[in-house]
Amino acid sequence: MAAFIARRLATAVPVMLGITFVAFILIHLIPGSPARIILYGSQATPQQIATLTSRLGLNQPLWEQYARFLGQLLRGNLGTSYLTQTSVAHELLSRTPSTLILTGSAMVVAIVIGVPLGVLAGARPNSLLDRGARGISFLGVAIPYFFLALLLVLLLSVRLRWFPAIDNGTFAALVLPAVSLGWGYAAILTRLVRGRIIEEYRSEYVTSARARGCGEGRILLRHALRNSSVPAITTIGLQFGNILTGAAVTEVIFGRAGLGSYLATSITSKNIPVVQGAIVLIGLAYVLINLAIDLIVGIVDPRARVA
Amino acid sequence: MSEQSRQTQFVSRRQMFGIGAGVAAGLGLVACGTGTSATATAGAAKPGGTLTMGIASTPDTLDPGATGLALTLLISMAMFDPLVWWLPDGSGGSTFVPGLAESYTVSPDASVYTFKLRKGVTFHDGTKFDATAVKATYDHIVDPATQSKSGLGALGPYKETKILDPYTVQIIFTGPNAGFMHQQAAGNFGISSPAALAKYGPTGFGNHPVGTGPFKFVSYVPGSQLTLAKNADYTWGPAALSTRPPLLDSLIFRIVTDDSGRYDALQSGQLQIAMNLPPNDIAAAQQSSQFKQLTVQSIGTPIGMPINVAKAPTDDPLVREAIMYSVNQELLVKQVLFGVDTAAHTVLTPITPGYSAASAALYSYDPARADALLNQAGWKMGTGGVRTKNGQQLALDIILYSDSGMETPTEFVVSELNKVGFTATTSVQPFATAQASYNTGAQNLGAFGYYGTDPYLLNIWVNSDAIKSGFNWSHYDNPAIDAMIAQANKTAGAAARGSLYEQVCVTLMKDAIYLPLWNVNDPFTMVNGVSGLHTTLNGYITFHSAALS
């Protein structure tokens, strides 16, 4: 297992290098001098621009700048926000918990709704329950999460006033963002689990289990569900990136101070160090999540460990 | 632009400065309508309570001297006092009112300002207010470590602050700076606690702002909310705002970047005021009996299109005048801007000092006049409704920069120009690219708009030195105007200075170098229970006497 983890981590190194390079080169792809962009509109004197350019090290050769960027990254220094002059690492970390809570809750919503619905629907294909579940999951896939978010806010916050429209730090304020973000993934899981369960039911080991006199509940949960769970877990892992993207929009809609909304506002204000830091952090999160998924799959399905 | 600063700086998407502000955006706010101190009154004002206002973006810093965002100045007006307030006089004009200075004098060449300071004022941290605080504040702004953005530019040619005695200071400039009284009231120069400046350092002060204003800093969660509490000792406010401590217990600025999110939160009761709602939500709020609106007029140059005098066919004054007669700004405001803003007819907004009514009356919508002018210039109506001369079409190149909020209004302008025989192509470029295009003169029409409290801002965009690398996108080269503006800026007397600027406005409009489109109005939408808000002339609202019922 340790060798497996080490191998996976080793393959992550070039990926991370690639991510840091893309993040680094960003500042040079934007038209115009970064110093001018930072001082944009403040009637900066040429002297102010020159001072800032040299302070940012923008007059050094590109490779030197990249080496310095990497060196600072390794020390956990992501630079200073152009806007607030505070440490980017600190700003990003202070917003990370909020985003983790939101994406975690969305995952919980997806799993708690998606898996049982898929199992029940798959166990009784074409029943009323199955048709209902398919209808719900169809809507979940068809309605974009940001649109669902707006509908939920209009109905449950503005009209009924059951939930806050913007974050106020309470659990109630987490419900609408988590549901709107998680719903689409619940739908995907429902369809996936349902399809797998139906397939497993057709396989010979289920027939033989039935022949052995095994109970239907045991067949469903111990055999069919367990065998369906590998693709489900992989899907959840692959969807993590999408959930993170969705979190950005969801955070903006619900006024949550998380990584996503911070990245979104930093892009519009051309706050390059923050965008760079967020790219690196999110890239790292992707790599770690993929690793975690591989490990979980390995635990659930021993065959995957060898592969 | 994404939206959306004050001081002599650009208007941009809502709060960031930048030229040519986003449609609804963040130009200065100023008193409603006639410029009287617009007060939102409702119900019986009760002391106590928490007022939460939804704002569209995150402040860059809470230090008014360092900030580059208009939004920070709005917030800082609740925590800081200026030396002298600049407020509406109630009859459409403006007046200077004692703030932390009881009186002031200006040297005849407008380079030395002497202030007599008020006694008995204390900062939120208990520090006594006196001349050292004034010196510390101004020295802090010019300190390179502060990295001041808008304040440094607004300050002008600062030399030093001289303490004559504990309650008398002189702010001295290396040259004339007649706009300083407007600038010092505009928010960047809120007097800061010298003890706090020393304790937290030039950049740390931005996280621990300490002033003498009606509200004290309590806490700030970046990206989320800023909480302020009542300063119970505050008795030095100007009579026009309130001479008593504030009624509210606390004032919260809640950051909600999503435009409709602010309206939703206003409807769900989490916000009492929402700033800069998009036009469709404003239209909805106006239909509702639950909400009322305070709009604050912008100060500076209205949103419009600089006309390039160095590129054919707009190098011909007759063609430029024809453009001025062919666009119906009133219809533009009504059809494209939902009536939130007002039609503009000259190079300054009506509440800006130096505004010239005579210059605003020079042109009105008159397509027949435009036709006559173009005929006179030799442009004959050709096939397809496009005029030609010597085989050339009457074609305009329009360059906009992305996020200027000008795309839809420009479509309207082009349709107006088409009616009199122009054809036009519009391209949208990123700001830095557009700026380079403007400087080389690739456009006939561009996009512009400028926030500034003093008419000296005209120097930024009509001075002949600003053609190659500045904001003179009209490529207007008129040494007489350069000299007249310089003369105005060394004239301390307000009346004499005003009349110089009015002459400048008339000349600029006669030369037809700018097509003014609309004066931005900043909308504050609030629940009916909010009362006691005042607008200031430099584009903010104050919370001195704000209350909830």
Topology:
The complex is a heterodimer of chains A (307) and B (549).
Chain A: H1 2-29, H2 34-38, H3 46-55, H4 62-74, H5 88-123, H6 128-142, H7 145-159, H8 172-202, H9 204-211, H10 216-253, H11 259-268, H12 272-300, H13 302-306
Helix pairs in contact in A: 1-12, 5-6, 5-8, 5-10, 6-8, 7-8, 7-10, 8-10, 10-11, 10-12, 11-12
Chain B: E1 9-10, E2 39-40, E3 50-55, H1 70-79, E4 84-88, E5 94-98, E6 101-106, E7 112-117, H2 131-142, H3 150-155, E8 158-165, E9 168-173, H4 180-184, H5 194-204, E10 215-221, E11 225-230, E12 250-255, H6 259-267, E13 273-275, H7 279-287, E14 291-297, E15 300-306, H8 317-326, H9 329-336, E16 342-343, H10 357-360, H11 367-376, E17 380-381, E18 387-389, E19 392-393, E20 395-401, H12 407-419, E21 423-429, H13 431-440, E22 448-451, H14 458-462, H15 479-489, H16 494-510, E23 514-519, E24 521-527, E25 530-531, E26 533-535, E27 541-542, E28 547-548
Parallel strand pairs in B: 3-12, 3-13, 20-21
Antiparallel strand pairs in B: 1-22, 2-26, 4-5, 6-7, 7-9, 8-9, 10-11, 11-12, 13-24, 14-24, 15-22, 15-23, 16-23, 17-18, 18-19, 25-28, 26-27
Summed up:
Helices cover 79% and strands 0% of the residues of chain A. With 307 residues, chain A is an all-alpha fold. By secondary structure, chain B is of the alpha+beta class.
- For this structure, the quaternary state is heterodimer
The largest pleated sheet of chain B is described as: 7 strands, mixed
Number of helices of chain A: 13
What portion of residues of chain B belong to β-strands?
A: 15-25%
The helix fraction of chain A, in percent, is over 70%
- Percent range of helical residues of chain B: 25-40%
Mean pLDDT over the full residue set of chain B: 87
Across the major sheet of chain B, the strand order is: 10-11-12-3-13-24-14
Largest sheet of chain A: none
Rg of chain B is: 23 Å
Explain the overall architecture.
The complex is a heterodimer of chains A (about 300) and B (about 550). Chain A is built from 13 helices and no strands. With about 300 residues, chain A is mainly alpha-helical. Chain B is α+β, with helices and mostly antiparallel strands. Chain B contains 16 helices and 28 strands. In chain B, the strands form 8 sheets. Chain B has a 7-stranded mixed beta sheet with strand order 10-11-12-3-13-24-14, sandwiched between helices. In chain B, strands 1-22-15-23-16 form a 5-stranded antiparallel beta sheet. In chain B, a hairpin with a 2-residue loop joins strand 8 and strand 9 (about 170-175). Chain B is globular. The model of chain B is unreliable at about 1-45 (pLDDT under 50).
